[in-house]
Amino acid sequence: MVCLASQGRDRKLLGCFSVSVEDPQENRWQVLAERIVKTCAERGLKFGQARVALDCAMFMQHAVHSEFSDYKRIAATVRFDTEEALATDVADVAVAFRVVSSDDSGSNLDVFTAQRGVLTEILLALQGAGIDPVTVDPDSYCLSRYLGMYGVSAEASGQKPLYALLSDSRGYLLTIPKAGEPSTVRAFPLAETRNREQVLARETLLTAALAEAGGPVDQLCLFDVRNEVSAEQLAGRVGRPVAVCDPAGLAGAGPDDIAGCFSAVDFALAYGAALALPEKEKGANFRNDHMPYEGTILRTNRALKFLSISVTILLLAVGVYFQAHLMSVNKTKADIREKFRPDYVAVMVGKKFPTTVKEGVRNVEKELNRLMAEKGIKGAPQESISAKLKLVFQAMYSCTEQTGLVVDTITITTKTIYINGSTSNRRSTDSVLDAMKEVGLVVEEHQVGADGERDKFDMTLTIGSQKPLEKS
Q1: Which among 443, 112, 119 has a CA at the least distance from the CA of 293?
Q2: Which of 120-124, 134-138, 195-199, 274-278 has the lowest mean pLDDT?
Q3: Among 55, 127, 192, 245, which has the minimal tally of Cβ within 10 Å of its Cβ?
Q4: What is the rounded average pLDDT for all residues in the chain?
Q5: At residue 165, does pLDDT exceed 90?
Q6: pLDDT tens, position by position, 44-75
């Protein structure tokens, strides 16, 4: 287990450790997952994403040719190509692949196959412990990724090295070629009873022959956990110089840093699994074919759900606010209508009350002019009660919505206009006074005072220098 923190292009090692299950048992994967979580908690290690390197004993590697060079077409047909190359049914296995090389004839692939039942058991155990791995890659592929980032490449050194890394029971042979050249990845078992040097020499000759298709292998970089392989004797067997290397040291990790791991090879495997691939690079991920990772989709769905709920609540709040404001304005208009109704009915006997106060004022003005014409009374309309009332209503309509104006009484005489009412606050009362002045009314006297949360006023007005009335 290796825990990394991303720092731009660099990676910082937060911690590493190894856990194991001593006695084989039916729920060994569950026990292993629980131990991983427990050890992380004890060491204070927290992670956002998990990636798994699948042991080479649990998958098989095959060389397969595809007729396509496009990745999407290869992915769509790789299962059929694998079935044809192996001459066996692959319905019960998960398939992962990587493109080794491509040309006009198609692509050469490294295809990895693993039993679906084994993958299901591992993934369910990890998920049950709260670990949902983004990828499940072959361990040899993870090691190739690690060496590709920290190893000495052929492009940098001018030589093409072949890395030979031996753990207690596994062997890995990998190359880091120049840009554009195919890489070679190979894993093989190491039995306790076999001579490790003889097995490595045989596998090296086979792998080097494959790797030399992209250029000669100049050097073998060796690391043996048990130190049972002699570099000098191996060099004589493979006919190439052999140099001893330190896999953990390539990433700048010392013996103290990896003290909790079984070996430097296990550290490099787990480190390679933890390295996130660039988006444009396609990895050999078994989860592309079996139990696909849905963490990103779930997070996106949760975010969209939260966003939709938030927008709905916001729209409801805005709707309730404007509805309350509209109801307040309508109530004020309704109060004015009800206060105007008795006076209108008394003057306009037998006439239906109009739908708007403005129309009622016009009707009263017409009736007044008619009566004055019948009686031969002459007078300036501006000084008439109707004209004064029209001025008052014009002023009130210009500020009702902004001030929350509520009028209790309006008393009009031949000389003065007396208004009693309230507004939402003192500033709104001042706005009402300004509106009265704006239409040509003079505020002779006014009194204000608090009435609960509202501002109550009494004002006495007279006709002053009036602005021209708006036509309505």
Answers
A1: 119
A2: 274-278
A3: 192
A4: 84
A5: yes
A6: 988 888 999 999 989 999 999 999 999 899 99
Query: How far from 343 is each of 139, 331, 353, CA to CA, in Å?
Result: 95, 20, 11
Report the alpha-carbon distance of residue 304 to residue 120 in Å, rounded: 30
Strands of 44-189 (E only): list them: 51-54, 59-66, 93-103, 106-115, 135-138, 161-166, 170-175, 185-189
Contact 140, 164 (CB under 8 A): no
Q: Which residues pair with 135 in a beta bridge?
A: 51
Helix or strand run (H / E) with residue 353: none
What's the alpha-carbon Rg for the chain, to the nearest Å?
44
Query: How far, in Å, CA of 4 to CA of 16, rounded?
Result: 9
- What pLDDT shows up at residue 247? 92
User: For residue 451, what pLDDT is reported?
Assistant: 84
Give the amino acid at 371: L
- Gap between the Cα atoms of 460 and 388, Å rounded: 13
Q: Please, which residues bridge with residue 227 across strands?
A: none
CB distance 439 to 432 below 8 Å: no
Task: List, in order, residues 6 or more apart from 84 with CB less than 8 Å away.
Answer: none
Which are the contacts of 308, defined by CB distance < 8 A and separation ≥ 6?
none
Please name every residue paired with 188 in a beta bridge, in sequence order, or none if there are none: 171
- Residue from 162, 331, 313 nearest 245 by CA: 162
Residue 154: per-residue pLDDT: 53
Whats the size of the chain, residue-wise? 472
Q: Give the per-residue pLDDT at 379.
A: 52
Give the model confidence (pLDDT) of 265-295 as tens digits: 999 999 999 886 654 456 788 988 988 887 7
Q: What single DSSP character describes residue 293?
A: -
**Sign of torsion over alpha carbons 364, 370, 375, 377:** positive
d(CA 333, CA 400): 8
Q: Domains of the chain, with CATH numbers?
A: 2-293 (3.30.420.260), 317-463 (no CATH)
At residue 236 the predicted structure's pLDDT band, cuts being 50, 70 and 90, is: very high
